[in-house]
Amino acid sequence: MKKLLYISLIILIGGAMFFSFFGEANAVNFSNPLVYDTFGELVDAMIRFIFNMAMFITPLMIIIGAFYLLTAAGDPKRVGTGKTIIIYTLIGLALILLARAIITMIEKVIGVKIGG
User: Fold this and answer.
1) Distance between CA 18 and CA 28 in Å, rounded?
2) Chain centroid, CA 30 distance in Å
3) Could you report the per-residue pLDDT of 31-61, keeping only the tens digit for each?
4) What is the predicted pLDDT for the residue at 115?
5) Which pLDDT value is given to residue 43?
6) Which pLDDT does position 28 carry in this prediction?
7) 80-89 pLDDT, tens per residue?
8) DSSP code of 57?
9) Cα–Cα distances in Å, from 96 out to 39, 52, 56, 60?
10) Cα–Cα dist 71/59, whole Å
């Protein structure tokens, strides 16, 4: 298995070297794989993605916690699990909202947009 990995790696590196030396006028051009031009835009996109994922996951986790509560049938362990899931979900949601609010407040106070 290791031999196959080493052979594949050698072929890959050798092919890259061949095409880089005998390619078009020995020019290597790298294009930007991201759709964002600045680091601030990238950070803003990551913050929006995390916020949107939190908004999507929160109701699902509350439903799962409620399912645990409804199907507990008097089992204190399942009731505790359901309550814990709901409480931790709400704490996580509060932290996400608080983080977003802090970023907005800092932007307003210093007058500079942190993201893109």
Assistant:
1) 12
2) 25
3) 777 788 887 788 888 888 999 999 999 999 9
4) 63
5) 81
6) 65
7) 999 999 999 9
8) H
9) 22, 10, 12, 16
10) 18
Q: Which two tokens stand for residue 108?
A: 């307003």
Return the residue matching tokens 């594949």: 8
Intra-chain end-to-end CA distance of the chain, in Å: 46
d(CA 89, CA 95): 10
Token couple for 27: 């020019």
b/e per residue, 72-96, with b = 16+ CB within 10 A? beeeeebeebbeebbeebeeebeeb
Q: What pLDDT, on the 0 to 100 scale, is given for residue 97?
A: 92
Q: Is 29 exposed, middle or buried (0-12, 13-18, 19+ CB in 10 A)?
A: exposed
